[in-house]
Amino acid sequence: MKIALINENSQAAKNELICATLKSVAEPMGHEVFNYGMYGAEDPNSLTYVQNGILAAVLLNSGAADYVITGCGTGEGAMLACNSFPRVLCGHITSPLDAYLFSQVNDGNCIALPFAENFGWGGELNLQYIFEKLFCAPGGGGYPKERVEPEQRNKKILDQVKEVTHTDLETILRNLDRDLVKGALSGEKFKEYFFANCKCDRLAQCVKEILGEA
Description:
Elements: E1 2-5, H1 15-26, E2 32-35, H2 49-62, E3 67-72, H3 76-82, E4 90-92, H4 96-106, E5 110-114, H5 123-135, H6 148-165, H7 169-175, H8 178-184, H9 190-197, H10 201-210
Parallel strand pairs: 1-2, 1-3, 3-5, 4-5
Helix pairs in contact: 1-5, 2-3, 2-8, 4-5, 7-10
């Protein structure tokens, strides 16, 4: 599984810590981690939590990433921004229990973490335990086990609802403010990672047009 990490401007200083913690858990499980930044507080390619949502949607809809780890100060803004887009199901996660239940019950593809609120002594340990429980088993396994069938049924219904309530991502990207979208896709390593992993030619072409490379 390809896992993308995205940090926004208020918590960019923690990017190295978050990425190292994520890699320490995910890579031994056979997953790949791609750090899309921000790469520090002084990174010139600044991202807001709204742009985190745009970038997460581009990565997930194109197949360039299978899962997105993002967040902000409280995690709430990033979660709301991500859930504004089609084919992104983002949970607000604060504990290992949240992570496990979101994975097993809701089978999402994105989480938003609070990187400032209650992130004090031992914060990196909580992150480690969250990542362990998030990826310890394939998503959608259900909890408790006797609830597997209705939980999986409800997830399929939610996916169908989102297909109706959201338009396609290409249309969304072209209708959004061009500078807002371009800023979300201008990270130092975005083009290197995205175009190497993108599985959707239409979205790749759309991104090239937005970046002025078509």
